[in-house]
Amino acid sequence: MIGRHWALALVRLYPRAWRRRYGEEMAAILRAQHVMAWTLADLALGAVDAQLHSNLEPEGVLSVGQRVRASEVAIFVAAVVFGAAWLAILHAARDPLSVWEAAAAAHPAMASTFTVIQIAGLVAVLAATARLAVLLRSQGAAPLGNVALMVPAWLALTVVVWAIAASRPGTGIRPLRPVDTILEFVWLLASAAAAVGCALWLAQAVRRSEAGEGRLRLALWPAAGATTAMAVALVAVALLTVQAPTVVGSSVVVLLAMMTVGVVLAGSALRRGWVAARGSRPLQR
Amino acid sequence: MRSDDLGRFTNPALLILASLAEGPKHGYAMMADIRAFSGTALEPGTLYGALARLQQRGWVEPLPAEDRRRPYRLTSVGAAALREQLATMRQIVGVATGRVGTA
Fold first, then answer.
1. Which of A1, A79, A183, A235 has its CA 20 to 30 A from that of A272?
2. Which residue ranges in chain B fall short of pLDDT 50?
3. Contacts of residue A45 in chain B, CB cutoff 8 Å?
4. Where residue B59 sits, what CATH number does that domain have?
5. Rounded distance between C-alpha atoms, residue B79 and residue A263, angstroms
6. A 34-63 near B (Cβ less than 8 A)
């Protein structure tokens, strides 16, 4: 009885489209047959296999639009992961201007690398903005209004924290007080909550958007731009890490790993999006 | 039916095709039939993993569901793939039998 309970729970690990097609049949079999340990292992392996081979999902259950939209959502989430690592690197980088200028004068490649990073970041932000604008256009202004309300509050808190950061010991303004530390901690938590909240909300908005297939296909182009920019920025940060390890700090290895995860996720999602948009199914006979 | 097409599902797929060659069956009936004629106990995860691949290739197709159980039937393309696979197996059996006999 307990084995059957676990077996039915394992069926829920299969992709939704798969369950919609085969779920009831599998459940009927599991209720009729004796469930053994191997049955559970077989179901777990099958769930992993089904998750890895989304092309096996029955044709017609997921439309081209749904596939491209899922790809867009994945790229957006990857961009958030990448952006979080990016901001953390900027926060952790030790960049006293005089030292930086001297280093840049001595090693022009460093200055060029930093310029590349900035351009790649700008391109990624512009591409992400264009993509969301394309996708949300059919939904009207209401969802964007929510973001418009959140952004000024977050910016105001940021200005306060920057002012505090500028008054730290060594800057000659005033020493850091305990309340400053608490405020900065709150800011970090608020930033993380804002990033995660915005990402989830926008992902939901994209998932529910009524944009047609043509517009979704169009949105893949800025997504490709954002993915390319993330890849370029990743290479540039890696180069900067090699050239000037003292500027970027020791935590950069973890952050580079995060950025790599973001680029791999985005690249994989972009490939799936293109395949869906072209309407080709590689394993289809 | 090349073995690299279906990976670990090659043998279960062959058993399913052989079972459906007799006539349409739903999942549980296929499992019982396969166990009876081959002694192989297919589990649901493997059965539906192979069925999905066979459906994707157009070798089997679903029929309207009957009381939450959906029967499947062999298509003409699936029957041709089964015949091709059986011919290959017969050739292997013939060669191996001859070699064992002369060894």
1. A235
2. 3-4
3. 45
4. 1.10.10.10
5. 45
6. 38-39, 42-47, 49-50, 55-56, 58-59
Q: What residues in chain A have per-residue pLDDT under 50?
A: 60-61, 140-145, 148, 171-173, 280-285
**Rounded to a whole number, what is the distance in Å from the CA of B43 to chain A's nearest CA?**
6
Quick one: CA dihedral A280, A283, B1, B2, positive or negative?
Answer: positive
The domain ranges of chain A are 2-56, 64-278
Can you give the pLDDT at residue A172?
A: 47
Across the interface, whether the CB atoms of A30 and B44 are under 8 A apart is answered yes
Q: Domain containing B30: what range?
A: 3-102
How many other C-beta atoms can be found within 10 angstroms of the C-beta atom of residue A17? 18
> Helices in chain A by DSSP H: which ranges?
2-11, 16-18, 24-32, 37-52, 64-92, 97-106, 108-136, 142-166, 178-208, 213-243, 245-248, 252-278
Q: How many CB atoms lie within 10 A of CB B28?
A: 18
Cβ atoms of residues A7 and A40 within 8 Å: yes
Tell me which amino acid residue A14 is: Y
Cβ distance A49 to B48 less than 8 Å, yes or no, reads no
Domain count, chain B: 1
